[in-house]
TrEMBL record:
InterPro entries: P-loop_NTPase, Rad50/SbcC_AAA. Coiled coil: none annotated. This is DNA repair ATPase. GO terms for biological process: double-strand break repair. It comes from Sellimonas catena. It comes from the Bacteria.
Amino acid sequence: MNAGVVNAVEKQFIRIENITIENFKNVKKGTISLKNRRKNYRASILGLYGQNGSGKTALIDAVQLLRFALCSQPIPEKYAEYINVEERTSTLKFQFILQQEDYCCNLWYQFSMEKVIDESPYHDNKLENSKTKYKVKIFDEVLSYGYTSNEKKIRKGPLIDTSADGIFLPKSKYQELLGNSTEDVTEMLVTKRLVQEQSRTFIFSREMMRRFRENCQVKLYLDILEGLHRFGNRELFIIDTEHEGLINMNALPLAFKYKDDTSESFGNLLLPLNIPASIPEKAMEIVRKIIANMNIVLQELVPGLTIDIIDLGPVVEKDGSLGRMIQLMSLKNNKAIPFRYESEGIKKIVSILQLLIVVYNNPSITVAVDELDAGIFEYLLGELLHIISEKGKGQLIFTSHNLRPLETLDKGFVAFTTTNPENRYIRFTNVKGTNNLRDFYYRDIVLGEQNEQVYCPTNNYEIALAFREAGETFVP
């Protein structure tokens, strides 16, 4: 179990408004706005559609990297291979809105990544037959802001720019963030180099956040840093294809955020389905609350279905702490069966349901889901997304191959990938209010009426010929 419990925090609204991807996977350049410019909704929904291999998952991966950055978690080594093969570096840019009760900030955060050889002492690339190991180096972080309140307005300007030599610029912001003391300059330079070696970000590192909290002289600046740090740690959730793989391997990854009058809990649970699983004893009450909360909605999505846990008794964990052995069960028509016997679609719904509940109710929550439609009945998927978009408050980013949501979502909530790696993401133009977006998309695949091509045509005759030629290989 990976979870946290914190005291309830002051109301603050943070949402991603724009993402730009450069030289990342198969995206040379792609910019996508997450705002619905057609109509003012409380919820922010972005459904991304397109051909296989056209950059949909790249968007979810970019949001995942944002979470790593804001949390200052080490970037997993696999992302070193995500930098476009034709380029040396990749850059990700994000724009946010931060809303407090008395002011509003526009925030911009960007960083670049480079694939470098891992020269850590734990991996010797010089050993015979040793495969060269690579890691990600994060550099050129820039955090900028623009400010609007009843009294004044400040245009976009850098708050922290690490691209220059030294610790960071501009000098005026450095003094306001860290004071006039020069005693820790050498130590901070060492920190800057250390976090790069560890594939972490500098601005949001534990070391620098501690210094900002101790020395920052401007409340606005600390609000910005704390707000983004909290957003990454507690309010940004990513459900990727690895999540789906765990379900296929008989494990249920349960991402959650639960809040009551005094505190909030957030994190991830991984529950093996083929055998009973142990969880920390202190987490037992949280798990029961989460399941009870989910059941309110689950029995409406799948009539008559609820889930529960059976407490099989206390256990002692390897570290000596106390835990409880539990078994996840499915209850339908007053009959209980182990949850592992449920369909893959039911498992998928349960694994993300708690987050969808939070998206519906909380404006400062962002959930990004890759292949949301996997295993979910298309009619239910369309209705579920329609309800969240019309009545919800939070932000949901998803990719899908199922076109049913194109008929239920407002057209301003949908974007498409193109076949042009230099301009990967577009919104359709010339779409009338009476158009069925699903039919419109099919028509554009055939006729190509947009400025960018959204589908690389295939030739049915050539495909059939290829099948026949491949089959001849197996003829005796």
